[in-house]
Records
---
Amino acid sequence: MASKLINADLIPASFYHKTSIAAGVLLPLGVFTEGSLSLPFDLLLGVALPVHSHIACNYVIADYIKPPALNGAARAGMMAVTAVTLAGLLKLNLTGPGLSASVKQLWKKSE
Ligand code: HEM
């Protein structure tokens, strides 16, 4: 299990494709709903996005970083990035404005 988390390119591709579809479906659902209606989409997206980017970046690491020591360091670094992202998005969704409201703020005029 731990080995599959750090070598996430070994996770079945069918699961990875599902995370891509989830990211593509959940983001508009979150953005086009308001307030507490967005929360379930934001919470799911807060997991789907880091899992998607974790597996995807492990594909890139497997393809482009061949020396074993560097490859291991890159995978460990990616694991840390994913863990921090998961925690940050959870905090944003539970104690802040939420992921989709934060995205929408990009298009709001600052006061
Ligand atoms: C709403 C956000 C996102 C959506 C809808 C999305 C969707 C997709 C889709 C459809 C693919 C093609 C692969 C497939 O067939 O499944 C893909 C690939 C990829 N995504 Fe995302 N993505 C999102 C966010 C991200 C983020 C935040 C990252 C972070 C780095 C990322 C990294 C990648 C990479 C590296 C690939 C290529 C993987 C490979 O080598 O095949 N994506 N994404």
---
Amino acid sequence: MRFLATGEEMQKIDQISIEQIGIPGLVLMERAALAVTEEIEKRFSRIKTGEHDTGRTAYTRILVVTERGNNGGDGLAVARMLAEKGYLVDVYCIGQVSRATESYKVQESIFGQLGIKITEDFPNGEYDVIVDAIFGVGLKRDIEGIHKEVIDHINDMPAYVVAVDIPSGISATTGRVMNVAVKADLTVTMGLMKVGMTVYPGHGYCGEILVKDIGFPDKAVDMVMPEIFTYDEGDLNRLNKRRPDGNKGTFGKVAVIAGSQEISGAACLAASAAYRVGSGMVKVYTHKDNRVIVGGYLPEALMMTYQDEKTAVICAENACAWADVILIGPGIGTGKEAECMLKTVLENFKGTIVVDADGLNLLSAHKELLASGEISRQTGNIALVITPHVKEMSRLTGKTVAELKEAPVRECRTFAEAETLVCVLKDARTCVSDGGVHTYMNTSGNDGMATAGSGDVLAGMIAGLSAGGISPTEAARLGVYIHGLAGDRAKKRYGKAAITAGSLIDEIGPIMSSYV
Ligand SMILES: NC(=O)C1=CN([C@@H]2O[C@H](COP(=O)(O)OP(=O)(O)OC[C@H]3O[C@@H](n4cnc5c(N)ncnc54)[C@H](O)[C@@H]3O)[C@@H](O)[C@H]2O)[C@@H](O)CC1
Ligand SMILES: Nc1ncnc2c1ncn2[C@@H]1O[C@H](COP(=O)(O)OP(=O)(O)O)[C@@H](O)[C@H]1O
Ligand SMILES: [K+]
């Protein structure tokens, strides 16, 4: 588990490290600069290769662009370190002298001692590398005037761009482009990954991202305790180990209420995904027209079918009596039969319910259903997990898609807290909240997963993990994380464009195998 810091949280960590714990700011700055310098050295040697036969030595030319904040201070230290190593370095500083921070001034005075010049006009030369040290986490408002001109100019140049801490112009908190932003090839960020570099559009401006430890003490991070966290591969050990003496009842029974007269695939995908995360038994409740298709796709699935409202309710009642976890919604439509089944499940089931897709559209149209079982949810006896994408969330909350995209973490958490449920707000970066202080933000996966049925697979995975005995919140986080990893494996195997929902299911086993 690793924290992702907002701009404000990172500045607090900085401040506590320096002012309360006593680590000198310049020590942190030198370590930040060293980290950037080393990465440039790895990629560009001092003398350019392949140009010896011209008869003269060609040196790598580097332009460092700074403001007079501490990000600029990092930049000056990078310029000095590279110049000491023999690179040809020019430094261009924007900004008023009066705004210089103390650490910037120290770096500037070292420059004076060494006789390195800082220019106050954008140099005309050609550069191999540009180091962007204009703004870091201190960026506050939209960028205008000379700063905008300089950033536009950097983006027009053919050089390789290295951003110090974060590309200038990206909000470290929201990932928003503050009017204009540097498009980096590499971003070397200090201490913690920033939220704004994880979400879009910010992520798209970072290029390759490296997080460097520059000595912020854990104590400072613990004192701030950032609100957002993500998982990496080490977190797969949160999965339950399978019991060698277990039987199919031990590993959980999942009811998948999915599909309708017109739709059969959703039930197949969700049920199959529930099996692949380890469920002992999966029973599909679907329209009778789907019996042959589901049976053919997944002979392992148990099945019960309905053909009208009355038999739909019987199906839902059977699921309530049989299952440990019920997934309801993929492809069920929004007709009377679907509505009756959802109502029956929400009012009667005493376990974890996962509601997806059409189930969510029905909830939007019948908000009173959200209240059924809320008291039992408050006491922790049962749980409700919802998996809306932003459009479905918009229908549920009445907020616009733009409003939700502006603050997905806040919206996800607020809704989860207000309705006592686990909310999985799906997008390119999916958030999971159970209303608690900390929100999970997923960082696995890729745009190849924007393919029909991908959400059905996720819903089946969450239901299956939860039936295996993992708490609903953890099942939602791990489900989202593994779903993304499956997307990343499928991307390597087939290429992004060729990923299908079915190909995601095939990747689940290898991901889980070493941990379960
Ligand atoms: N405190 C320290 O000594 C350390 C700071 N570090 C670096 O310092 C950065 C943060 O430094 P600062 O807090 O000084 O801020 P920045 O260097 O990010 O920003 C510079 C200044 O620009 C001004 N500004 C903000 N938005 C503007 C806009 N739209 N147009 C014009 N001016 C604007 C702000 O007033 C700010 O003081 C980090 O990102 C990191 O790179 C790290 O080196 C670690 C150590
Ligand atoms: N650009 C993207 N990057 C990463 N994951 C994505 C991206 N676009 C979609 N996804 C993921 O794919 C899934 C799509 O689910 P959903 O919208 O419900 O599709 P469907 O209804 O077709 O199954 C979600 O888990 C979502 O997070
Ligand atoms: K920067």
